[in-house]
Amino acid sequence: MAQTIVVGNFKGGVGKTKVSVMVSWELAYERNKKVLLVDMDPQGNASTLIARSTGVPEINTSIFDGFKNGSLKECIVEVTDNLHMIPAQVSFKNLPKFLYQNVKEEIDQVSYLKKLLDPIRDDYDYIFIDVPPTISDFSDNAMMASDYVLIILQAQELSLEGAETYVKYLQFMADNYDANIQVVGVLPVLLRPGGRVDMSTIERATEIFGEDNVMKSVIKHLERLKAWDITGITNNDQHDKKAHRVFLDVVDEMVEKLDHFEEAGKYE
């Protein structure tokens, strides 16, 4: 059964979507794992980047179709044998209205994605969920459907505050809805590697979240990542390979942590 990971922070623009796409990409292409990327952001940036990178000319389905039909199977776009995605489109902004009009019980409203993912979990090794940076029905459903959260920490104060709020909200979801989700790691995204503000933010994050939770791998501010937004993900030259190596390090550390959690869970 797939390990399901939501990539989160309640601060926008910290790199959640890029990390969601790239860890899915590396696991599928370089680690030969079966991966499903679920785009829950109505802006659909993760869907656009995957489509641009793999030559998918047009996306004719949306996760919202799956919510309305009660099944996600028909919404899955098989990008490659190992990488599948459930894309989002602007219409998905109407999710709150749909839930309130069609699902009576509050617990069922926040658990709707979990109900839809359960029948397809056995088809994948990993499922990643990309969500908007808001306290909303989108994040509630993603948390309830996930086993773990990978928190993205851009090295700035507002991102650190967003990460703290995210962890507090996880506890709220556990207390009120019995959400069963663990933090697999806090991943630093550096704006200026070696800079005073970046290092100070990482030090504070280590004090707040604990040394074991802040990942040793970091995402550096690479120009190639911005270029991929235009060209799609490539692996043609040394700059591409350097960028891929960064995310492979993240993937390997994350998988090691996941394996540790899974092993520990067997003996509880």
From TrEMBL:
Name used for this protein in its record: Cellulose biosynthesis protein BcsQ
Entry's transmembrane regions: none
Alphabetical list of Pfam families matching this protein: AAA_31 (PF13614)
PANTHER family per record: P-LOOP CONTAINING NUCLEOSIDE TRIPHOSPHATE HYDROLASE, PLASMID PARTITION PROTEIN A
Residue span, AAA domain: 3-182
Highest taxon of source: Bacteria
Organism (species): Psychrobacillus insolitus
Stored SUPFAM superfamilies: P-loop containing nucleoside triphosphate hydrolases
Stretch forming the signal peptide: none
